[in-house]
Structure formats: C-alpha cells, structure tokens
Design brief:
422 residues, alpha/beta, FAD/NAD(P)-binding domain, 2 domains, 9 helices, monooxygenase activity, Auxin_biosynth/cation_transpt, flavin adenine dinucleotide binding, CHP04046_FMN-dependent
C-alpha cells in the first residue's frame, strides 16, 4: 500500500502571499510544501489587461527581504515588471513548490491534522496556510443573461485591450480600480465609453508636493490595524480608492471624463433585450467619492499644519461637472442598439471560492474567520486578504509582516507539541 505524503505545513497558493510564508518558514527551519494550481505569477501574467500597472508606487513593493529592485521607486510597475519582480522573489526564496497542482478538498484528518485531496493525489499536513486570495469567481449579475446576444459581454478578468472588443461604444459597469482604468483605456483608444458609477471612493494622487500614499505612510495610516480601525471588521468590506499609476500616475476625476465625452450613469439596475436600466444614484455616488477625496486632503492638511511642514499650497477642490446641471442628460435607461453599444465589460469584482475547505472556519456569510490570519480551526491560517491585519495585508506592502507573524505562530505551535527532554 502506497503511503500518503505528509508535511508539517502545506501552503495552498504560490502567489506573493504563499511565497512570503514559504520564505519565513525556511528561515524558521520548518519543512513545508507549496501547492500552486497554475504557475508562479499566473494571475499577474494572465488575468490583467495589457496596460495594467500598479496604482501604488514601487517603493511600496516590500516582499520579505526583497524590496523593489528597480531604479524608479516613485513610479508604478507595469504588468511585465510586476511578473518579473515576483519571479525574482521566487528565485531568491527557492520554495519547495509543485506548480500545476490544484487542491480540491481540505478536511480534518483522523490524525488530528489535515487531509488534502489534490490533482497530484492525497496528502496530509499538520498545519495548512490558505494563500489563494479572494479573487476566484468573477461576479456577473443573473440578469446579464437577459441582454441581447448582439451585445458582447466580458468580465474585467478577460479584458486585454480595446481591439479585443467589436467596433462601437462600450459600457463599463463598475467604478472601482479596474472599472475606471478600463474606462480610461478605452477612452484613450478613442472609443465612446459609458460608465456605470458605483459607490467606490477616490483618492488624490499628488497633493501638496507628494504622492498621497507617501503622506499617508508618514501619517501612520498603513500601520493602522483592523482592530483599531474605526470601522472594525467592516473595513474588510470597503472598496479600494480609485486612482491610476498609468503614464507616471494621476488621479481620476470622473466629472472631468464626463466633460470630455464619457457618458456617466448610475449603478446598473437591470437589463432586458437591448435595454439597460440604471439606478438614480449617480449624483450621490459622485458626491460620496469626492467627499472621501476631500477628507484625505483635509487629513494631509492637518498633518502638515501640526508638523509644521513647509509644503506648497493647493486650491480647494471644486466639482467641474454635475449631473443635475445637465437637464435630461442622465436617462434612467438606454437602448444599446440606439447608442451603438456593442460590448459590456463587467468590472464589479470577484467572490472567493472556499467551497473546497470543509472546516468550520467561516462566518454566516461565507467569509473566513481569523485574527491576524490565525483561524479558530487549530492549525489553519489565511493570508493575502485585505485587512488581514493592516491596509497593506492584501498587497506587496504588508505581506512581509503578515507572513513573518504566521511563521512565528506555526513555530510556536510545533515547539509546544515537541516532547520535553528529561
């Protein structure tokens, strides 16, 4: 009878989070295995559009013992540079990894550890780290099926460039980071763009002489932990602020795009045939995004004044366009055929897929329960998720601290189970 391979720790997922845990486990001298269903860098390489780039500066790329290696720390890496950065990190780590191996089931084992069913056969582990992220299942609403087949539909995960879409106008649904950047990509290409504006907040890019992220770093915002955040665990549900790193970085003001010809609408409310319907929330969503934008500026102003920093002044924010100022310009429904809309790009996010985990590790909404990544299920951990501990937890910025912490927890757990010498 063939024995089932056993490992002290198995890490599921070989992205930046899983590789960071591997690096710290190697430093702790803990034997482990990384299982990656595709290959290192797959999502960055295969699930991003051609002009994709980071929205945070390169200096925030701080994988453990592997900070940004290039000559442009205040720039924003494009897709190929991100892949190269991650591959360089993997080359330094030299993780014990098996690529092309998917985990299809994780359950509690009879031995007190865990049983894993994989595409490479069964395995067991004393401890398991889930480093698969939360971007597994593209979200498309059920009513999308009611739209005429004459209109091509695509999710942002499959969008690559404007030439991929048929000639004509394009409706982008969603104004988070992906939605506004795809909108801009299409606009730069000369396409007529319609944008469904949701509740996502926006951020300044450069303000009073610095990138806003640099000010926030100085102000200690990125050290704020979720247990001290005013919203508590609800911070995990907040959408990221939209801005861009394209062409040296700039902020995105949807009102200015409206002046330049982009047609803004409220949130998507439904569709049937060639008709799409919108909620009456465009003005509110624009105002709410601007209020967050202005509040960030106010916080920076207060910090500058308190610290006595000599920084250039900037004029107050003034909206350049408002839907209420253009009578009848914002219809509650449009006909795609009449507007020449040939394609819709859905950019309303993803859902995680934890269906393969058969353990009591989730709340009533299916979200993983943890404190700093440590699950209430003994020996199970999560990493690479937004606000695992801080704002940077789901990004290159905070994963080093998170992975080091989990490695220390696993080391302590192993040591506590070792027999005490006489």
């Amino acid at each position: 009878m063939t024995s089932v391979p056993h490992f002290p720790v198995i890490i599921v997922g070989g992205g930046q989070a899983g590789l960071s845990v591997s690096h710290n486990l190697k430093k702790q001298g803990i034997e482990h295995l990384v299982l990656e269903k595709n290959r290192i860098g797959h999502s960055w390489r295969n699930d991003r559009w051609d002009s994709f780039c980071l929205v945070t500066p390169n200096w925030q790329c701080r994988l453990p013992d592997y900070p940004y290696q290039g000559s442009d720390p205040t720039g924003y890496m494009v897709k190929d540079e991100i892949v190269a950065y991650l591959e360089g990190f993997a080359e330094m780590v030299k993780p014990p990894i098996r690529e092309g191996v998917a985990v299809t089931r994780l359950s509690r084992g009879a031995h007190g550890g865990f049983d894993l069913e994989t595409s490479d056969g069964p395995m067991t582990a004393d401890q398991v780290v889930v480093a698969t992220g939360g971007y597994d299942i593209p979200i498309v609403p059920p009513y999308a099926h009611a739209l005429s087949r004459d209109v091509v539909q695509m999710h942002s995960v499959d969008y690559r460039n404007p030439d991929q879409l048929p000639p004509g106008a394009v409706l982008v649904v969603g104004s988070g980071q992906s939605g506004v950047q795809i909108m801009e990509d299409l606009y730069i290409a000369g396409r007529q763009v319609h944008l469904c504006v949701g509740p996502a907040p926006r951020s300044p890019r450069q303000y009073r002489g610095k990138d806003a992220t640099e000010w926030l770093m100085e102000m200690g915002y990125y050290k704020l932990t979720v247990d001290k955040h005013p919203l508590g665990d609800r911070a995990k549900e907040k959408t990221n602020h939209y801005m861009s790193g394209r062409a040296g970085g700039h902020e995105i003001d949807l009102r200015r795009f409206a002046l330049q010809g982009v047609k803004l609408h409220g949130s998507m409310a439904g569709m049937d045939g060639t008709t799409v319907r919108f909620a009456d929330d465009l003005a509110k969503n624009l105002d709410d995004a601007d209020e967050v934008y202005v509040s960030i500026r106010r916080d920076i102003d207060a910090y500058i004044a308190k610290a006595g920093i000599d920084a250039p002044e900037e004029p107050p924010f003034v909206p350049v366009w408002a839907p209420d100022g253009v009578p009848d310009a914002i219809p509650d429904a449009i006909d795609c055929a009449a507007e020449g809309i040939s394609a819709i790009v859905w950019a309303i996010g993803f859902r995680p897929n934890y269906g393969w985990i058969e353990l009591p590790a989730f709340d009533g909404r299916g979200n993983p329960k943890f404190r700093r990544g440590v699950s209430p299920v003994d020996g199970l951990y999560f990493i690479g998720l937004p606000w695992l501990n801080t704002w940077g937890s789901g990004r290159f910025l905070g994963v080093a601290e998170d992975s080091a912490y989990l490695a220390e927890v696993m080391r302590a757990r192993i040591d506590a189970r070792q027999p005490v010498a006489a």
